[in-house]
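Exercise 7. Given the components listed, write out the predicted structure of the assembled complex. Treat all entries as one system.
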Amino acid sequence: MMKIKEVATKLNTTQRTIRFYEEKGLIQPDKGDNDYRYYTEQHLWKLQTILSLREVGMSTAQIKKTLMSEEEVGRYLNMQRSALYEEWLEIKDMIGTIDQMIEKNEDQELVKEDIFALADQLKTLKEKRKGWQDQWNFDSQARGYDESLKMNGYRFNVHENYEDALAKAIESIRPLKGEKGVDIGTGTGNLGSKCLPLGAHVIGVDQSEEMLKVCKEKHPDIDVRNGHFLALPVMDGEADFITTSYALHHVTEQEKELALREMDRILKPKGRIAIVDLMFANAHDRARVIKGFEEEGNQEALYAIEDEFYADRSNLVEWFKQLGYTVHTHSFNDILHMVYAEK
DNA sequence: TTTCTTACA
DNA sequence: TGTAAGAA
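Answer.
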């Protein structure tokens, strides 16, 4: 039985901190008749983990949850990593615009407007990065996701050519042994897992906890991470290739450009990207296909298209080219396409 | 001496 | 979380 001072020095903290954790309900040491706190080995261990989690920025409230649910420390660490990545990206954005402001300021004289504009731009960028929300509630869809893939829509089957498309993506990427790939919006891992037998390390990113849980159960070898298109939990230039299927249409057309830049950030030079998704070849084609659905009175299709953000493939191609990529495209049907880009 | 509690920054 | 003050 140790008294608080001994514990504090041993763990390299202060007595105040230890009492504070008790106040927050994280630990309950035994109290003697003199009201002194006495700590056992178990208490020490617990305090040690509290301190460790605190060190990586987890709040006491989160730590409390983590400690109570015993089994899932990994899950909370995962979430914490994502949070830190988001903060990191935000800081990078801020530094970037400050650089631009300084440059403007040195160039010309009266450039307040430019600086205001840059600040405003930064603000919207921050909002986009944070403002991501799961409009379609994938957490609740997770369990039945693979089953629902097999079912066809009544008059509109978005998963027609699904397997062909996934196969084509892998065939284009040609993952090599030892390479690191990132599968964005990995869901239950249907696409990402196809890289595993080829010897690649796969990071599966998804914003839905439940999806990740299911994914991990199906494919234990996938390195599953919380995150989304606008804030990928991956370092700059870490990925040899990126895949994504049936996910980009959950991001608005405006955000898609930012999403491509985010992919560009994590991709190595010479890296490859394969995007398989519901999209239209271009604006004309979009009008043509929609008109077709209207003429046949296919409300189901029209509603589905309106509810989500099917990309304009020509825009994606254009953005990739601006970033210096070589781009190829492939159509599976009117609404299912692949964009393949090489850095 | 040591720890405790409470208040406040 | 750090600091301070009075009490046990």
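Discussion: Chain A has three domains: 2-68, 74-130, 138-342. The radius of gyration of chain A is 25 Å.
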